[in-house]
Amino acid sequence: MSKIAMIYSTTDGQTKKILDQLNRRVETHHSVDMAPVSQASKLDLVGFDKVVLGASIRYGKYKPEVFEFVSGHKTLLEEKETFFFSVNVVARKPEKSSAATNPYMSKFLATTAWKPKHLEVFAGKVDYPKYGFFDRNIIRLIMHITRGPTDISQCHEFTDWRSVEKFGDLISKTV
Q1: What is the pLDDT of residues 98-117, one digit of tens each?
Q2: What number of other Cβ atoms are within 10 A of residue 80's Cβ?
């Protein structure tokens, strides 16, 4: 049984929803502690065998706290079995849906110089009814430009839950 830290940064909750699913896949065989990245300093990462970090993109950027977490724990993270996943709507496109082809993943890895052992990209969702006026219209414009859904009366979820389950199985099995 491994001890696993699952840490996340989410804007609208999709990254947390994905992490919850990963936790369900893993918790029957491992001890799991979950925390938002803003509270991750309360976890003593030294005592964990594996660290999972999930982060979402909004307007082309991860939250600064994700970079701060990686920068502040980089040496320790490089000693652990690490998993990083990115959640972004660009990943809805097949040609940008892998860790090797997703521009946000590439930029993050180059910026942080962190080399997680396992990488994944999940498409997120566009939840127009949940957004305020500004976000709804800016995101709709971005979706129009990128040929995404623009119907603001609906939530458009792109997450491939089978891929999430496979990643959870990988977390559970690796040593």
Answers
A1: 999 999 999 999 999 999 99
A2: 18
- The residues spanned by each domain of the chain are 3-124+159-173, 126-157
Per CATH, which fold does 3-124+159-173 belong to?
Rossmann fold (3.40.50)
Distance CA 56, CA 122 (A): 9
User: Cα Rg for the chain, rounded, in angstroms?
Assistant: 16
CA-to-CA separations, 10 to 38, 92, 153, in angstroms, rounded: 11, 18, 23
Chain position carrying tokens 């979402």: 56
User: Does the model's pTM come out above 0.90?
Assistant: yes
16-65 pLDDT, tens per residue? 999 999 999 999 899 999 999 999 988 889 999 999 999 999 999 999 99
Q: Are strands 81-87 and 50-56 parallel, antiparallel or unpaired?
A: parallel
In the structure encoding, which two tokens stand for residue 133, read together? 């006026």
Buried b (16+ CB within 10 A) or exposed e, 11-47: bbebbbbbbebbbebbeeebebbbeebeebeebebee
